[in-house]
Structures are given as C-alpha cells and as structure tokens.
Amino acid sequence: MTIRVLLADDQALLRATFRILIDSCADMEVVAEASDGAEAVELTRAHHPDIVLMDIRMPGTDGLTATAALCADPDLSATRVLILTTFETEDYVAQALRAGASGFLGKDVTADTLLAGLRTVASGEALLSPAATRSLITRFLLAPAPDTHLAPPERLADLTVREREVMALAAEGRSNTEIAEDLVLSPLTVRTHIHRAMTKLNARDRAQLVVIAYQTGLVRAVPPTV
C-alpha cells in the first residue's frame, strides 16, 4: 500500500524538500501541499491522506488549531497527524497530543528518521519515544493527584486489570519490551493489551492512550527531581 501524505508548512522550500524525499520512496507519495492550517484542513477533507505532516507555527490558522479540527472530524478518522516542531517548544507538542496528534518530529530530523516516522504513524503506532513521553508527562500532563483509594474513573471501567496495568506503564514512558519484562509477558501480549485498551477507550494511538491515563488519574505524574 502507498502511504499518502499531505504536507502543511508555510516554508515552500521545506515542503519541496520533503516532497522530493517522500516521492522518492516506492511506498509513499505526497498528495497535496498546504501553506497554512486552514488550507491543510480544506485539502485533507478533499484528499483524505493517510498522514498530515503538520507544522505548528504557520500564519493565519496555526497547526494546533488545524490538528484539533482534523482529529475531531469523524470523516477523517483514518487520517493521522504527525507534528513537525522542535523540542524547545514542548508545550506546543503537549497541546497537539491532547488535540489528537499521533506524534511529533523535530525539523532537524534526518531523512531516514522522517521516513521511518511516517511509516510508524501510518502503521497505527504513535511516534512518541519513551524518553519524550517522560519529558512531556512530567512537564505538561500533570493532573491533580487522584485519591489512590478510589475506584478508577468510569471511563476506564471496561478495561481489565491487566489492561490498566499495561496502560499505566506505557503512560510512564515504558517501551513494550520494558513492560513485558516488568509483568513477565511477551512483547506481543503487551502490544495486544495496548491495542485492546485503545479500542475500548476509542484512542487513535498510543499517544492518546498516554494522555487519557493522566487525564483520568490512572497515573499520577511526578515532577522531575532537580
């Protein structure tokens, strides 16, 4: 299958560079280019790409607003948004994840990393490394401390005990391999539990699962030690 990509960035030179790179791959193609968020939303609704490679800072409608609009549109449930940003603006990244983005890349990524990231997101996974997850949750996804003696919120009621355990560890930034070692499971079993939790919670991907874990109080973020 060919991965269909829409590029949204106000820098024409950068869009042209990405187009050349993506179109050089046999399994990818650029279907449209947008220079701002409003155009990105319009073209996404017209072309239904698999992935929108979205810049955050654009004139007019920015990437965050566009991401929220795309991810809230039920007709675009199959389209995923991959954010382009820098790690110096992690607050924007956190907002994008809350809006439904499937991950993020820095604009200084190598060609191989960009292509691998597009394939990762197209496969249904989130492009959110354990290190990035830990950084984001400790700085921007902090929630009021829940009473640990209370039952899980109603939204998590359909999850099994094991699914909640796996979800909590994923929200702490653990990889599937690390979770498997902690719970004495196979990585494939961990992956299955994560996908079941995503399905039950109507989460697009692992990134949204992490956000839900903190928003519902399943996991409490601990500020980093100075």
From TrEMBL:
Record-annotated membrane-spanning stretches: none
SMART domains: HTH_LUXR, REC
UniProt modified residues of type 4-aspartylphosphate: D55
Protein name: Response regulator transcription factor
Superkingdom as given in the UniProt entry: Bacteria
Record has DNA-binding as a keyword: yes
Keyword set, alphabetical order: DNA-binding, Phosphoprotein, Transcription, Transcription regulation
Residue span(s) of domain HTH luxR-type: 152-217
Keyword Translocase: no
